[in-house]
Amino acid sequence: MAVCTVLPDRLVKSWSEKGREEALGLFQKSFKAQKTNFCEANLELRSLVYDLLKCGLSGSIGIDEISSFLGELVSVLGIQESFPSLLADTLTVLDADFGTIDSKEQRSSFKALLLACRELVGELLFKERLDMDTLEAANLVPSKANFNQKYVKTKTKLFYKQPKFNLFREENEGYSKLIAELGHDRRLEISPAALLDHIKSLIGRFNLDPNRVLDIMLEAFETHLEEEDFFLPLLDGYPCERATFVNILGFKFQSCQGVDPTKAIITPPSLYSLVAKLLHHGLVTLDELYPHLSLSDAKLKEFYESVVQDAKNMERKANVISLADKTDEDKVKEAEELKDKLDNREAVLSLGLNQKLGVLYALLDHGDWPIALQLLDLLPPYMAMWCVPIVKSLCRLVHTSVAPLYKCCAPKAAKGYCPPPTKGVQLVLKYEDLERCHVLEMLYRLGPHIYRDPLLHAKILRIVRAFMKEYYILPTGELHTQDQDDVFYGLISVLDEVILPALSFMQCNCGMAEEVWSVLKLLPYQTRYCLYGHWKNDSYDQHPELMEVRTQTLSKGKYIMKRLTKDNVKPSGRQIGKLSHTNPGIIFDYVLSQIQKYDNFIIPVVDSLKYLTPLAYDVLAYCIIEALGNPQKEKLKHEDTNISTWLQGLANFSANVFKKYPIELTGLLQYVINQLKAGKSFDLLVLKEVVQKMAGIDISEEMTTAQLEAMAGGELLKAEGGYFSQVRNTKKSSQRLREALVDTDLSLPLCLLMAQQRDCIVYKEASNRHLKLVCNLLDHCMDTFVQFGLFLSTHLSVDEYSKWVPSLTVLGQEYHIPPDAVFFMLRPLVSNSVTVKFLEGEKSSKTEGVDKKTRASQMEANFCSASQEVMEPLIEASKLLFPPRIWEDISPRLFTTFWSLSLYDLYVPNGRYEEEIVKAKASIQSVEDNADLNSSKRKKEQDRGQTLIEKLQEEKQRQEDNCRLVLARLRQDKESWFSPKVTKNRTITQFLQLCIFPRCRFTAIDALYCAKFVLMLHTLHVSNFSTLLFFDRIFSDISYTVACCTENEVRRYGRFLGQLLEITTRWHSSEAIYLQECLQTPGFISMMKTSANEKQYLDYENFRHITFKWHFKLTKSLVVCLESKDYMQIRNGLIVLTRILPYYPKVYHLSLALEKRVEKIMEEEKEKRADLYTLATGYAGMLKTHRVHLVAEAEFHNRDERVKAQNLESESKSFKGQDDGTLDFKEEKLSVTSKARLSDSPRSTDDGGRSSSKSKQVPDESKPVVKESTSSSSAPSKEKDKDREKEKEKTKLVKSEGKEPPVKKEKKDLDTKMPSKENVQASNGSEQSSPPGGKAGQRRQHSSESSSTPESIAERDLKRRKTEDNSKSKLAETAKDKSVSDGLEPQGKEKVVRHERKRDRSADQDEQRGAEKDSVATKRRKESPEPVPLSQLPLPPTLSDELVTKERKLKVMVAKKDIHNVKLPPSPRLPKTVVKKEDDDNKTMKKEENAKDDERSSKKDEEKIAKKN
Questions:
Q1: pTM to 2 decimals?
Q2: Fewest 10 Å CB contacts: which of 255, 352, 1192, 1341?
Q3: What does the DSSP 8-state code read for residue 1464?
Q4: Read out DSSP for 73-100?
Q5: Torsion of the alpha carbons at 967, 971, 975 and 978, rounded to the nearest 10
Q6: What sign results for the dihedral spanned by CA atoms 909, 911, 914, 919?
Q7: What does the pLDDT look like over 1039-1058, one tens digit per residue?
């Protein structure tokens, strides 16, 4: 409320100048404000008058000035009627304020003020308002006593004397004449004025009571309501107060009321009609009449609350489970109580007893909506609509109003219902009139009770549908007007508050549901879902009747769901369909709650939903999204490591429903996008299930080898043999999913968000979640991304796909998408672009008169040209993905080529094509043999099978041609992949880090692709690529890589390792295969002399030694994982072992070491982590079945015999590696395996490609120091050979005497505890010391070492039989001497030993050592360095630690070794073995009893094997 404004002091001070005019303006403003806000303006006006008069009393303004100002104010404003009363009241207040002041001046001033205002106010008002003393002082009354006496007499006469009427003087003749006058024939055309004069004369002549006369006139009007044109002017001219009408009507209503509503007299409808006409013409006001009507507001409110409470109680009882049956008495009692409630409700809502509802009905029937609306506002909400006659009357009113507009909107076949015209109703001619004619307000008041008139319900729907069509079909560039927007939002409110809630009352009315859907389908899904949400969650709570409907629907739904099985899907589906026609939200809410609890309900429920209407399907989609986004349900299980079962079940149900039925997918897709924007990954499970079910694309790590082979083929082969589900059954559903993505442009946002979400999971969600959960979320995100990308690439057209996929620069630089995801999205586009360019080149090529060979050359040239044109921009763009220093080690062309190709381009699965063709032929044969099929169907099936065969053959030929062309392109580009200026070690490190490792973990197909790509590099004889170095880097230490993979990633990585092991196993299996595929290849160069460019390749036997070393390295790494207490390492290690089982292990004692670790895991995790126990148990079983393929170490490679030299230079028993990273293998006399060392260094060449004698090499961390090769040191002398032979003979002699060579014994058991990865140096052939300027203290040089030759299993068994009586004591006292490969034991029961020579070195050895030291000291001054045997150089660190650091950002502290700035000690006779420090666990010595027990168990196993052999 505004604060009252007083007269400002400045106006009083300047009254004579400008104050008077400004004060007049204030009064005018306050007076005008009374029209809009009477209360505040009237209070402000009174305050101004009060301040003005007070200024006159105080003398600030003269009395005459005030009098003249007030006179001017009255004349200017024209307020002669109301202002005198206001002035009198103000003077009365001043009299009260100043009456207590004994100041003669003040009293005299007030007297003068009264006299000045006497003409404006008048004496009558002064006598009525002022005090007696004031009146006498102002000479307004002559005597106070006389005036007081007269006042008392008048008051007594008015209030304390009852007038006596002589009823007999009211002659009956007068009333008879009155009735005759009122009931005469209107055809005489007597005017109401003439009749009124007659009535007045009758009253005067017969002395009639005017009130009784008015009552008779009202009764006459009530009897002849159709003559309202006559009676209304008559009543309007009757000389009486308006209150008289109200009192007489109130008496009439009260005479029909009673204490008990059920025993009250029914109010006649004619009285309601009379009152409605009087209210309509203003003879009576609703505010005056309303208190005389029954029932009272308190009783109506109590009745309304009781009905609402009964509905809530009914709903509450329906949800209570009662195990006790009700007795007959309880049932009878409940029935009686229900009957009493219904009778009472019927009595209260009857028009005869509830006079307020009766008057409302009459008003609506008369068409007086404004007054009816006032009465509705005085009643509880929607309570009047519980009365059926009122609803019907209001519906007729709406019918009449919308009839003209409906004729324009109705279908041609619809005749429509034309109610009788109602007076006073405004007709709707256009959509904008709906609000002006109060039709929308009528519908709001009608609410869901419009269901009682289905015809009006359908009319309103058709009008809304016609408007929505015009509203959404707007010409380009035009905007909606304000009136159109107002109508639109008004009709949306009608749908929300009237149409949809009314549908809930129309049981099993599928036709009306179709009408509703015809309107809703025009709206966007956001608007529809808002309407559904309000309908399901709010509308039912606002109406007690809807509460009862909800209770009944739930009861029926529970009854159906309890009996739903796969056998009665059809009848149960019909029942669910009937409920869902009108109450879809309620029934689906309950169905989804059951599905979230019981996942076995999914298939029967999905099958039972085939009888739903389109509206029900749309509401079902909304209910699914609402259930997915329920904030009250946790999406994780209690252990916070797995997704909740309710979410999995709901996702599965959603996918099945969206696949089987035509439901709009936009809402669900947008929900997933919103969740990804919020950084939440759980709901990707829904998208994954939807794409899998609707498109048939399944990303599963459990795919068989045959399925993976099929996935390498074309789309037809993938559909026939690659996917788990039949793609042909998903044609329609995949098309709907495609249309949903294309029409809404959601493809790109989904792909980008999923690609970015991978980092969000690792770096944001991982902080407060369990590692296992983070890995699962990462796998889900990755699988969904791949699955979604495959769907888009296979179902979108080329133009559509190229339209939404941004460029490589945009994806990498603006959206910061990782390269693997970038190329995954771009790969189909690149392949298609190459194909288009190739076809364009083919069109311009001349093919006439060209033989096949020339034609093939032309095709290859065109393909290479097309590839070059497409790849060049891609190569330039890919350079921006990494810093420039990266491209110094790896070629951008190799990087782009690797990522842009797929397995389809490198490998043709001929076997799978043949299998599918054979299967199709068998299907044709089975159809021919089936006598039950008719000829037409048999012919159809045969044609389908033959078509499939032809398509498979065509697809196979296309893939073969494509592989041939791609291979030609690769041959052309291969020389630019690996630069000779960069060391092989650095190149392979970057190749592994940027290409192999990211892609082999991307998908299972990519894992196969990586293996095929490496094999392709080997097969194409790519220069400067060392196959041996690559394999060695892969197999050296996989523990880090395995530890930082997720579950799915490690499965793919295991497939990749399995493929590489398959390749090495094939080469290892046959010398002929090895000689054919490996011997003369650049990847198997073991030595190259820079002086003569002579290359020496690794022979077959040495390759077998290296293969054993790789198997042993794998065993060491996997044992480290299995012995770790970390969940992820154990699980990933078991998964890798399972994946590579067909090719590893191959050696018995390596298998035994793994088996013992697995058994230990089974014992420890049986009661702790069930999933690890399951994995370990499964692998243990498979390992036992794999035992038949195991061989002894001696069979796997030749341990005892030397590798014979092929020429004089190889008689040094060392394959010296080239200075750019080739392999150097040096056999040890007492070693189980010969050493293979890999290293690399840059090679300086002149213009002719030969080594430059003037080039200088400065050793650093990236370039190894190369030792000069001279003729004196390239091959050992004959004297050295003799010394070695003598040493061998001495060793054999000692062993033949039953003695062991002098060994420093260390009790370590490989089978019990394998050395950890931190404690074993990777493949170092000799210890080095830090040279000047190098990193001091990083390396230590050990003294000379030796190892004894191991005995085979058969020899040990024979020896054990000869010394059976004392074998136990000898085994306990003597540690069996086992050879060491790269500082580790290759067998389970043998120890890592450090041999100390017991004799001094010979003079010639000292001289050679000195010569080698001199060569190392002078190597920097040499202009033409020569290679050094790489067995004397340590291996570079494996890529795993770099991978962990860069890709996972895990700080793994691994001791790096400087392999360049080292001094190379001489090794004239035997190479030294480097033994790393053991970790803390391995340093603990095993007790003697444990050693004996292990020895006994080993003995038993060896005896069994010996027996088998």
A1: 0.69
A2: 255
A3: -
A4: HHHHHT-TTTHHHHHHHHHHHHHHHHTT
A5: 20
A6: negative
A7: 889 988 999 999 999 999 99
